[in-house]
Design a protein that fits this description.
The protein is of the alpha/beta class. 41% of the residues lie in helices and 19% in strands. The protein is built from 13 helices and 16 strands. Helix 2 runs antiparallel to helix 5.
Length: 418
């Protein structure tokens, strides 16, 4: 057995043992661990920023894209957001043991369906060191042990943040092995995790299409993931102009490198030379490259779109734009080019909005709101371990509740089956 295989097996064994203990840990202990971790992150923010500086240097040497560098960067504001996220997860109701449903049977049996931890979660991620805190906190809250394999570019930042989580676990008297960070940049560790069916119950990849595609194709462990965030915004003829201008600009430009950023703007044909022209002017003024279909190419700043621009996740200040005849044509476009992540409709017409919601099956559908809200923290989950676009178990933002399964507790009174 190779050195990496031995390392990962040892991590898996410790995680499985910790998961057994964590599954029945009192809610107060988990809350204390997260609150103490939050205190530690804030107290060590100088060290975390210093470590992040080394990671940024490494990222520049590797030639990371501006979007990836933005994901990697930590400053005091982003560390404050990590602290806030840890405290928000700590304050949530504990999902473990919650009764989802209960009923009585004519046989005299009383049956309860209750939430139970998944067991051990493996998280493989690129760039974003905040995932170390988010994933560790959410898995802990749901009673799961977690094995974290951060990207090589975020190695130093993730190590410092993980040390804070370990301090929180120690303070609360919980096993430190409940949250483990793989202590190597060797990519062989990823391959080992994907095969660790004996120890890991689910894998969550966070990163670009290359990473997620690799995990989905090679994992022997079940996967929660989305491959791409090709998010659409459809501006209906009944859109409110003021709302539309604010939402479209925010959806594209607030942060271009996140999976909830708008990548395609669909404009009702009645709006092309009115509101549509204004929306495109706003985007161009904000430094966005608008790659437009033929019907939009007469507008200032629009460059011709190629066929490859639709269904593209740019993760940059670039957006594709298309003209559609109505909501049904918008729906057809999204079904063809979307990735089932997040779509938004801007309209004041209830019937049109209802049709958009009913006939699309993306994980998140929005009305008159920016796609940048596609985030577990914004959904009140305190954070998220990722966005899932599959249809099994978890969809949309995966928070603590989505990191549980359920079991049936059946009570009788000497009850026998006829």
């Amino acid at each position: 057995m190779s050195e990496i295989a031995e390392l990962m097996r040892a991590i898996g064994l410790r995680a499985r043992e910790a998961a057994t203990e964590l599954a029945s840990a009192p809610p107060e202990a988990k809350r204390k661990a997260l609150e103490s971790a939050a205190d530690a992150v804030w107290a060590r923010r100088g060290r975390i920023i210093e470590a992040n500086g080394r990671d940024l240097d490494y990222g520049r040497e590797k030639g990371l894209s501006p979007a990836m560098m933005d994901r990697l960067m930590l400053d005091e504001g982003r560390i404050a957001a990590i602290v806030e996220g840890l405290r928000a997860v700590a304050a949530q109701d504990d999902p473990v043991g919650q009764v989802i449903a209960e009923w009585d049977r004519p046989t005299g049996l009383h049956i309860r369906r209750v939430r139970t931890p998944l067991g051990v979660v493996g998280v493989i991620y690129e760039s974003r060191p905040n995932v170390t805190a988010d994933a560790g906190a959410l898995c802990l809250k749901a009673g799961n042990a977690v094995i974290l394999r951060g990207g090589s570019e975020s190695f130093h930042s993730s190590t410092e943040i993980h040390a804070c989580l370990a301090e929180g676990l120690r303070t609360a008297g919980l096993p430190e092995d409940a949250v483990q960070l793989v202590p190597t940049r060797d990519r062989a560790a990823v391959g080992e995790m994907l095969r660790m069916v004996e120890f890991i119950d689910v894998i969550v990849p966070r990163g670009g299409k290359g990473l997620v595609g690799l995990v989905q194709s090679e994992a022997r462990v079940p996967v929660f993931a989305h491959l791409e965030g090709i998010c659409h915004v459809y501006v209906d003829k009944a859109a409110d102009p003021e709302k539309a201008r604010a939402v479209v600009l925010n959806a594209k430009t607030r942060r271009t490198g996140i999976c909830g950023a708008a990548e395609c703007l669909l404009i009702h044909r009645d709006l092309v030379d009115g509101l549509g022209a204004q929306l495109i002017a706003d985007l161009v003024a904000a430094g966005v490259e608008v790659r437009g279909a033929e019907e939009l190419q007469h507008l200032p700043g629009v460059i011709p779109a190629g066929a490859e621009d639709f269904g593209q996740e740019f993760l940059d200040r670039i957006i594709a734009a298309q003209v559609v005849a109505d909501v049904d044509e918008a729906i057809a476009h999204i079904r063809r080019f979307g990735s089932s992540h997040t779509e938004a409709i801007l309209t004041e017409d209830d019937a049109t909005a209802d049709r958009f919601f009913a006939r699309l099956d993306s994980a998140i559908l929005m009305r008159n709101a920016s796609t940048q809200f596609a985030d577990g923290g914004e959904f009140g989950m305190g954070g998220e371990i990722g966005i899932a676009t599959g249809k099994m178990h978890a969809r949309g933002p995966v928070g603590a509740e989505q990191l549980t399964s359920f079991k049936y507790l059946v009570t009788g009174n000497g009850t026998v089956r006829a």
